[in-house]
Amino acid sequence: MRYLTVKDLTFYYDKEPVLEGVSYHIDAGEFVTLTGENGAAKSTLLKASLGLLRASQGSVERASVNRDGQPLRIAYLPQTVASFNSGFPSTVEEFVASGRYPRKSWWKRLTEHDQEHIQVSLEAVGLWEQRKNFIGALSGGQKQRLALARMFASDPDFFILDEPTTGMDAVSKDDFYELMHHSAHKHGKAVLMVTHDPEEVADYADRNIHLLRKQDSPWRCFQLHQGEEAGA
Fold it and tell me: What UniProt keywords are attached to this protein's entry (predicted)?
């Protein structure tokens, strides 16, 4: 099932083209990486695909329901996760637990199933042992992993991730890529992830989308290439 279809998307900043004629798609059950050189407007493409930025031209279609006919849930992790100061009044476990409430009414208590999701999410990013610690005491890399854990706990259908492994060591990265592969192939999730190192995740991802600048234009205009197909 197709969760996202982008056709001939063009985006301008102050009348200058940043993305031009971009087309791509993401289906349920696949793990897709998005690459490009620094400044290749990868984050801008994600935001335009989500509707956070309005495209100048082209179309973006997002599915309204998932494979089970339920409302499609999209989780977006931006490149820079909001910082938490030392006095942030929440423990690691409480913060991740808050990711379960959008699936419930705020006044209902979390069930044993919810608690299992919370534990699995924290274990997946290596923070279960720190669950009683306050967020402000975590390092920058741990806060990044905490944001991922909260996202996992919300159990979305479609993950859109902008360089999510920043601050992770090699083992944590491999574990994360394996988790995303498992989520896509075993649970039918869709994953679109920006990365600077496609070779690092090549054993886990199904395909890669690469942003390239056009040969006859400044380094602000891009075409998108997917495998051997040009999207512009």
Answer: ATP-binding, Nucleotide-binding, Transport
DSSP 67: T
Sign of the Cα torsion 195, 200, 201, 206 reads positive
Fold of 1-73+201-232: Rossmann fold (3.40.50)
Q: Is 231 helix (H, G, I), strand (E, B) or coil?
A: coil
Rg of the chain, C-alpha, whole Å? 18
Show the tokens assigned to 180: 């995303």
Q: Is the dihedral of CA 111, 112, 115, 117 positive or negative?
A: negative
In the chain, DSSP finds a helix count (H) and a strand count (E) of 6, 10
Q: Where are the domains of the chain?
A: 1-73+201-232
Residue 176 near residue 144 (C-beta atoms within 8 A): no
User: What is the three-class DSSP state of 165?
Assistant: coil
The pLDDT, as a whole number, for residue 85 is 60
Beta strands in the chain (DSSP E): 2-13, 16-27, 31-36, 57-62, 74-77, 158-162, 190-194, 207-213, 222-226, 229-230
pTM value?
Answer: 0.85
pLDDT tens digits, 200-227: 999 999 999 988 876 555 333 344 555 5
Residue pLDDT, tens place only, 39-50: 778 999 999 999
CA–CA separation, 92 vs 90, rounded Å?
7
Contact call for residues 121 and 150 (beta carbons, < 8 A): yes
